């Protein structure tokens, strides 16, 4: 199938569906201006990018450091980082360091954790990453438009003892809605889309470009870091002719395992680290297919083997497992138990009758979805436990739950809607215990848990990071239209 579906799918079809750059071990091809180890200056600025290939028009985008994706940030586990973010956009912005367990003042939520960065101003983010792994960064102000126009970058925290691989590759996979002239389509904040699958695009890029093929050599072992920076697109990736092994989810090491059914589920904001032993034949090509949406599968890229003889005849004799991070283990026997229900959206089970305060006077944030400069207004379409918090975050957001610092917590998340939701919890990682009553295997810790319709997922964590932390759906339309709340650790 043509890899430029990656070019066009009709909006009608999407609604009907319900909807590397190579990183060698020496790294990085993403040039970054680091004053010293752990020090970066990152500039949010308009730029132009050729997303859809040579000979096609360039696209006006918003970027970090003039590139899509933005500059790769590489930090070291347990070492202080200082990141100065300068805003050269014509509207306010912030940066959220997605998945990093950091102090609340560095979390990047405007009003709730910091004042927004005004045009022409800068903000200094300082934190020490406790966990190694694959993370990313993006705005949390007018996030629907800013992320949709390209503001996203990858962040890698290096292990003290990295695994033995031949290459360490990064694939930042992004979804765009483009016109025939390769312009970013208008219409951010569409109310109908916000109540359904969100703004799913018609073009998918790999490291900032539509990818025809990515080069490999037979016999090599590759660590492949997948990052989904899309507004709404969920992916289910199949590596034809290969058997990828998942070794980390959302930056946290898991027990090495092959994905169920050979498909790697990757919701917006999620990351998955794979180990790939390249066992294909020299000179041959193998498709990487995304077939999450029924009837809308497409080829993301091809694994293109060069003609050289295999690097080795047998797979590398080295452990696949990554060293674990210093996550506090929850005490399940003494844990407090809480529950949150996701509600609303079109075609949801039970309609809107169970949404309580959201449909009456209980809306948070004024009950309208404001998106900064665009002047768009969309009524809240979603709720958590009957309350909607719309927008990006603001002062005075009352917590849905309050936890005493140091307590172990189990949280049951129930999806009473007809739509998928990647639920992201700031400042923490959650151990996923059960899904629909069945234990989750392979020791999985996540900061963004993908929930199918009717899913009931039980997670656990230690509430050891004080502050008011956002919990929200990372389908950005859903967040902006109310699928967000605050959990307080005090």
UniProtKB/TrEMBL annotation:
Residues annotated as signal peptide: 1-31
The entry's keywords: Metal-binding, Oxidoreductase, Signal
One Pfam family, short name: Cu-oxidase
Domain Plastocyanin-like: 52-161, 171-286, 395-489
Cited SUPFAM superfamilies: Cupredoxins
Protein name: Multicopper oxidase family protein
